[in-house]
Amino acid sequence: MDPGRLKRISDYQWQLPTAGPMRVPGVIFADEALIRSMDDKVLEQVANVAALPGIVKASFAMPDAHWGYGFPIGGVAAFDPEEGVVSAGGVGFDISCGVRTLLTGLTYSQIEPVKRLLADTLFERIPAGLGSTGALRLASLEMDAMLRGGARWAIDQGYGRRDDLDRIEEGGMMAGADPDQVSDAAKRRQRDEMGTLGSGNHYLELQRVVEIYDRTTAEAFGLRPGDIVVSIHCGSRGLGHQIGTEFLREMAISAREAGITLPDRELACAPIRSPVGERYLGAMRAAINCALANRQILTHLTRAAFRTVLPGTELSLLYDVSHNTCKVETHVVDGKAREVYVHRKGATRAFGPGHPDLPLALYATGQPVLIGGSMGTASYVLVGTSKSMTEAFASACHGAGRSMSRHAAARQWHGRKVVDDLAGRGILIRSPSLRGIAEEAPGAYKDVSAVVDAADHAQLARKVARLEPLVCIKG
């Protein structure tokens, strides 16, 4: 992307001025190098989102932004409840895909002698890969209960501890979920997939804390140099994808009927206050609960695997946050606090200190913002800032962002060589698919450290700790 097409606001903020059908400007948070690395399609999609009815303030793109379906991945947009729209493309297909990080209380010296055994045990216990299924089978009534209850339902079934809920977005259960709006086809796809990672960029990773940037916040989060943590990245599996597919088709029709002119058919949407919009929100919230329950079950399986290898180990939850959602939140717009529907697609919620939705233990620090790497690269823990609350609807990046397609990556890398190269660096990879590993090769992604530095400098979220991989269970 040519930076000359943008108005430079600062070293880390660029504006696409309002033009044509745009109702608000576009804003991209990135340094110049990241701007130049972005596909021109990102700018086109930022402008297209800015043309949607009821959008407020701006159409935002995070430092990891890249081309997506309708909305850019790394896109953030908020809409007025009465005049605005909800877009399935603005949420994405993997509804509530997110990251959960667990504190092990262990150090590298304790893990290193059993690292290979732990990798094998986790791979044996954690179903991963395309179409992977778990031991849990949900009948119709159980499915609906899960879709209403999220992680709370999972804990009631014995998958975890009640104190986990304080460290999960929405307290582990998204209100307003309506299982009746989830199709039988979506429920069938999910029936055998609870407690599974799935494929693509999903993973479970053992990581070592290698650098602390903010000692006070790191101590509040329970992070110290040399500590071992576990991060889980996955979402709502087949159920979320089916919901996205079905409602995108329906929204393409409903937008036309509502007189909405779409600059791109992939921006299919429905008025928030319409029957289609309300049904989608009910189904999407159910999918959020599905993802929260899924990560809760995976947490239970991870804890059991650790106890098998290292008896007495207790894994506590640092935080669980999603990055493909639409949430009703209160934000200041034009000097007034108002309720808006915030779409975050490939973008992470980043509430700053003092936000009323944070648990007491995190109230003074702000929300942990969990940024995933790509198998052989670092991951990061950040913390939400007050500036992000006012500048970007409390949003930050979610990862490195792809720099090439999966097809292109599979042509350039071979899975076995990626595994061997990473093993040479002390990183053990376990996966059912060598092609999947090639598609997710670290080189297929942008430099996550550059993305995180841009988010930090733009004050979307502040760096707290850098994590490096030791073991990766890859879908």
Protein described:
By secondary structure, the protein is of the alpha+beta class. It has a single domain (3-403, 445-474), classed as tRNA-splicing ligase RtcB. It is built from 15 helices and 19 strands. It has helices at residues 32-37, 40-50, 108-111, 115-125, 140-156, 184-190, 215-221, 237-257, 275-309, 360-363, 386-391, 406-412, 415-424, 434-439, 448-457, and strands at residues 7-10, 13-16, 26-28, 55-66, 73-79, 85-87, 98-107, 203-212, 227-234, 269-271, 316-322, 324-333, 336-345, 348-349, 368-371, 379-384, 395-396, 428-430, 461-474. The strands form 4 sheets. Strands 7, 8, 9, 11, 15, 16, 18 and 19 form an 8-stranded mixed β-sheet that branches. It starts with 6 loop residues before the first strand and ends with a strand. The mean pLDDT is 95.
Task: Please supply descriptive tags for the structure shown above.
475 residues, alpha+beta, seven-stranded mixed beta sheet
